[in-house]
Amino acid sequence: MIGFSTGAIAYSNFRAGLQVLGEQNVTVVEISALRMTEWQPLMQAFDHLDLSAFDFVSIHLPSEMNATEEAFVTQSLRAIQHRKYPLILHPDVITDFGRWRELGKLICVENMDKRKAIGRTEVELDVIFRQLPEARFCFDIGHAWQVDPTMTEAYSILKCYREKLTQIHASEVNSRSKHDKLSYATIQSFRDVAHMIPAGLPIILETPVSPNEMRDEMNKARFALTPLGSPSELVA
Amino acid sequence: MPEQLAILEPPSELDRLRETLQIALPNIDNARAEANTFRQQLEASLLGLTSEDTSIVVFGSLARDEFTSGSDVDWTVLIDGIANPKHLDLAREAGNVLNSLGARGPGLERIFGSMAFSHEIIHQIGGEDDTNSNTTKRILLVLESRPVGRRDAFDRVLNQVLSRYIAEDARFLQRSARFNVPRFLVNDFARYWRTMAVDFAYKRRTRAGTGTAIRNIKLRMSRKLIFVSGLLACFSANVLLTESELSALLQAPNATYEFVRHLRRVLAQTPLEIVASVINRHQHLRRIGLQLFRAYEVFLAVLRDNDKRAHLDSLQPSAEEGDRIYQELRGASHEFRDAVLDLFFDEQTMLHQLTRTYGIF
Question: Which residues of B touch A151 (CB under 8 A)?
C-alpha cells in the first residue's frame, strides 16, 4: 500500500490533493492539515468528502499549535473520532498529554527530524510513549535517516516500536530539512532497515511531485523499502 | 513540554569501583568534579553557538574527567552539514569564549582549536589522505571526546565512524566467529597508540627536550590509558557482556547495528570508567584494579599540584634521573604498566586469548 500526503501533491489544499490522487488511481492517502489555517476547513468538509475510493486514510494534524489551538484541535477531533482514521501527531506540539491520551490508539506519534529537540530517537520517543502508552507510531524513515545516516537509530526505533507501527513516511529529507525526491544514497540506506518494517503497512510519500512524477516516486519508495536480498521491484 | 521526563544516565562504573575495591580515589574524584564544573561553565558560555549541524567537542583531560587547573583544553567545532563561510567565525567565537574562561589553548600542533569536517573524518580511514591530524581527530573522537552544547552533529559523526569500522568488517559478528572483536577498529587504535609513541620521539627531538618529562609521563599513563580503554572496548563483547547478552546481540535482526549501539554505550564512558567496568565485572581482577587505580591516583595527584606540574614542564631530560618527582611518577607508571599487563594477560577471562590474538600480530 503506497500513496501520498495531500500536502505533497497540492500545497495547503487537501481538496486538490485528493482530486489528483483520485485521478491517478492512488488509493492510499494522508490528508494533511499541517497549518492551523487548514484545520477548520478540513473538519467542516469531512461530512461532504467522498473518500470511498481510498483503501487507507490518515490525517496529519497541525505541526504547530499553541495551547489554545491544541485544545481546539483535540476538541474538534471528537466529531470524526468514529471514523477511526489514524491521526499523525508531531510530539513537539504537545503541551497537554492528557488531551491526546483521551484519543487512545488513534494517535500516531511521528518521529521527528533533526531540527527538533525531542522525539528523534528511540530514547526520546520512549519519553513520549510513556506519556501516551496507547498511542501508535508513524515511522518517518527520512527523519530517522537525517538524524543518523548509518540507520543505527532507525534500527533501534524499529526494534523498539515495531509493534506500534501504523504507517510509514518515506521521502528524502534534505540538508535543509525539506522533503525531497528519494536519492540513490538514501534509497540504499532505507534498504538496510527495510527488513524491520512489517509487510503491508501503508507507505505515505511526502515528496512534492507533479502528477506525472508520482508513479516514478512510488516505485522508488517501493524499492527503497524492499529488504536487501529480495527480488528487485524497481520499475525503470 | 512540561510533562517531559528526564532521561536517566546509568550509575558511574567509578562509583561502583570505589565500593568494589573499598578505596578512596580523591584525585580522580576531584579531577572529575573540576571537569564537570568547567564543562558546565563552558556550556553556559557557548549557549546558542551550537546547532543541529555544528557541535563543539572537547577532547583530552576535560573529556576524560581528568581535568586540572594546568590542563590544556583541546576543542574543535565539528561540522556535519552545509558548508558555510561563517563556520570560521563560529570557531573564533568558541576560541574567544574559552580564552575568557582562562582555558589554556590547544597544543602546538594546531590539530585542535578550529574546525573539523565530518566528511574527512568519516571517509578518510587509511590511505594517503588519512593524515596524522585526521587520524588523531577520528580516534580521539571515538576514545576521549564530549560535546558541549548541542550534540546532534557529534552523535551523527560518531555513529558513522563506528559504523564504518563495524559494517566493513562484520565477519566477527557471525555466530561461527571464535571471538567477537572488530579487528579494523583494533588496528586503528593500535596504529594511533604507536603513532603517539613515535611522535613522542619526534617532539623530543624537534623541541630540544622542552616538555619531554611531562610528555613522557603522560605517554606512560593517560595516553596509554586511552589505548587500554580502546582495546577493552574492542574486547568488550567477550569481556563485558554475559553469554546471554552476547547471544542476543549476535542473533538480533541486525548484529552490526546492535554492535554499534553496544560500542556507543561502552565508549560513552571515560577511559577510567571503561577500565573500572571490567574490574567491576570480574571479582578476581580486584588486585589488579587496586594497583592500576592507585598508580593513576599518584599521576593525577602530581598533575593537580601546580608547582610539581610546573617543575615537570621545565625539567630537562638530563635531570630526569635524579629528580624525585619524576622518579615518583616513573615508579607509578611502572605499577600502572604492570597492572595493565596483568589485566590483558589474565587467564581467568578471555583477555589473554584476545590479547594474544589481536594485540600482538
Answer: 257
Q: CB–CB of A152 and B261 under 8 A?
A: yes
Using DSSP bridges, classify how beta strands A165-169 and A203-205 pair: parallel, antiparallel or unpaired.
parallel
Q: Where are the beta strands (DSSP E) in chain A?
A: 2-5, 28-32, 56-60, 87-89, 107-110, 136-140, 165-169, 172-173, 179-180, 203-205
Distance CA B60, CA B78 (A): 16
What is the pLDDT, as a whole number, of residue B14?
93
- Amino acid residing at B12: S
Sign for the CA dihedral angle at B172, B177, B181, B184 comes to: negative
pLDDT digits (tens, 9 = 90+) for B199-234: 999 998 998 888 999 999 999 999 999 999 999 999
Q: In this model, does residue B4 exceed pLDDT 50?
A: no
Is A233 a residue whose pLDDT tops 60? no
Q: Note whether A227 contacts B: Cβ–Cβ < 8 A.
A: no
Q: Closest CB to B7: pick one of A94, A123, A176.
A: A123
Q: In this complex, do A193 and B254 lie within 8 Å of one another by their Cβ atoms?
A: yes
Sheet holding B145-148, edge to edge: B114-117, B75-79, B54-59, B145-148
Q: Which residues of B touch A152 (CB under 8 A)?
A: 159, 163, 257, 260-261
- Quick check: helix, strand or coil at residue A228? coil
Q: What does the pLDDT look like over A5-32, one tens digit per residue? A: 999 999 889 999 999 999 999 999 999 9
Q: Does A52 touch chain B (CB under 8 A)?
A: no
Q: Residue A156 and residue B81: Cβ atoms within 8 Å?
A: no
Q: Name the pairing type of β-strands B145-148 and B54-59.
A: antiparallel
Report whether B77 contacts B87 (CB < 8 A).
yes
Task: Note whether A175 contacts B82, CB cutoff 8 Å.
Answer: yes
